[in-house]
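User: Some background: our group keeps a shared notebook of sequences we're curious about, and every so often someone picks one and asks for a predicted structure to add to the entry. Today it's my turn. The entry only has the sequence so far, pasted here. Could you supply the structure so I can complete it?
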Amino acid sequence: MDAISRSPTTKNLVRVYYLQERLKGFGKDSDFAPKHLHVIGAGVMGGDIAAWAALRGLTVTLQDQSIERIAPAIQRAASAFKKKLRDDTQVRFALDRLIPDPSGQGARQADVVIEAIFENLEAKQKLFADIETIAKPDAVLASNTSSLKLEDIAAGLKNPSRLIGIHFFNPVAKMPLVEVVAGKDSDPQALKRGMAFVRKIDKLALPVKSAPGFLVNAVLAPYMQEAMRCVDEGIAPEVVDEAALAFGMPLGPIELADTVGLDIAVAAGAQLASGITEPPRKLMELVNAGHLGRKTGRGFYTYNQGKPQKAAVGQVPAGLAERLIKPFLAAAQRCVEQGVVADAELADAGVIFGTGFAPFRGGPMNYLKERNEQP
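Assistant: Of course. Here's the predicted structure to add to the notebook entry:
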């Protein structure tokens, strides 16, 4: 028993518990108690943010261009509520809190407004310029953008300090982490209120600076790109994924790319390329053929009822896991050096709760430190 309590795995898992507690602390020093959320954009991300907040007890108005665009999000929410609550009365109450709002009237009363429309700078600038004129003066104005600069979006506002980023991950119901993003002009009070909102809906808030990919996408993109380069070199996707699983990742990088959507993987790769030459060849072939991963039924894998059809894996080449994980670790280190997160501990917390990075390894920065300490 004593050996178990002294083992590196136990030490790292205890560390993860304290990292989680640190994330839970963000937003606690604010008396902001949001009751009404207004979400603009009823696509998968916006619809799922709205549904999650309604499930956690907030009144939520969900805006899009027409009721027809909002309807699929309400249907998804209804089936999620039924699975989660298993009590018809509670399901009814949760659905009553989720209000379709094609005209956007809810933005006037909301304590928090989150924009989750398509990634187009002009559209977002115009939207926030309109919202600023009708929102309550102390309402949090936030974008869920993952690829546009917060400062560019805020340029359309009379008071750019009002805008922050509140960046959720897909699938919203399963991913515990939410990045709360500070643009260079963001008001510290708005950021505190943003973190208080994230705590209110039972998510973990990670404060990050506005930088390409913030923390989580900045570490995932080079890792997925390296995995896809391995496929270009002739290593089977199943073998690449098996190497990552053996390291302790919850999902292989190729299956992860298929799950995220290969079109999104291309966009993220382009945004974070920084000197990388060509995008992976097979990735571009699949995207050009319209095979975008799980959502189209085919990507690197073929999908049957949402499950990837994988061939049996033989021998995993020696050193493959290390090769995959190297760009992941380098990106985490870079985010700490550039101040995207305040310290190495927060980088570990964000990466564990935002990507599922093997918790028993204590996070990428901890893993690097332990590796360097080994004789």
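Suggested note for the entry: The chain has a mean pLDDT of 94. The first strand starts at residue 36 and ends at 40.
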